[in-house]
Amino acid sequence: MTEPTEPNTGAPGTPGPAAPSTDPEALRERALAALLTARDRTALLTGCVDGPELTAQHSPLMSPLVWDLAHIGNQEEQWLLRTVGGHEAMRPEIDGLYDAFEHPRSERPRLPLLPPEEARRYAAEVRGRALDVLAGSVFGGTRLTEAGFAFGMIAQHEQQHDETMLVTHQLRSGPPALSAPDPEPVGPFTGPAEVLVPGGPFTMGTSTEPWALDNERPAHRREVAPFLIDTVPVTNARYTAFVEDNGYGDPRWWAPEGWEHVRRHGITAPLFWRREGGQWLRRRFGVTEPVPPDEPVVHVSWYEADAWARWAGRRLPTEAEWEKAARHDPATGRSRRHPWGDADPGPRHANLGQRHLRPAPAGSYPAGASPLGVRQLIGDVWEWTSSDFAPYPGFRVFPYREYSQVFFGPEYKVLRGGSFAVDPVACRGTFRNWDYPVRRQIFSGFRTARSAEDV
Question: What is the pLDDT of residue 22?
Answer without folding.
Answer: 73
